[in-house]
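To: structure desk
From: M.T.
Subject: fold request, one chain
Message: Could you run this one when you get a chance? Sequence is below, nothing fancy, just the single chain.
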Amino acid sequence: MSVHSHESAGKSRSAACAIITLSDTRTLDNDSSGDAIVRLLDVSGHRVVARVLIRDEPAELKTRLDEFLNRADIDAIITTGGTGIAPRDRTIDVVESLFEIKLPGFGELFRMLSYEQIGAAAMLSRATAGILKNKAIFALPGSTKAVELGMEKIIAPELGHVLMLLRES
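Reply: Done. Structure tokens follow.
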């Protein structure tokens, strides 16, 4: 089957997603990045089955990831926040330590697209993706513009395809 055939077949697959926002300052009332993920999943035919906002604490992130990874009703987890190089940005350290399969192309593509928008500062993002327990995990920056970029250009168009490949026997 060609890449385009796979993509076409996967586009009709709807994903049940969990969203984790990592922030020491935001609340669910002003989480514009989390709101953008919800909106963009919805318009892409996917649905949100869980959403939390937690502090930038590695132990809490690990606990939430474990919780969502063990839920049968969740296909993918999308995080926002904690992907930079500041001392409190530990999201990538946690998620990458868990991956069974890393998807390096996601981060590479995200930074390439980001470079077109913000220039060399794109290199400061450690956005990443991978697979764990047959679920896709995407870690996006906290910036709403970065979330919109990653969701519109990469995650939303490919999520169904990713799930189709994970579910093949």
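Reply (cont.): Strands lie at 16-22, 47-54, 76-80, 101-102, 128-132, 135-140. Let me know if you need anything else for the meeting.
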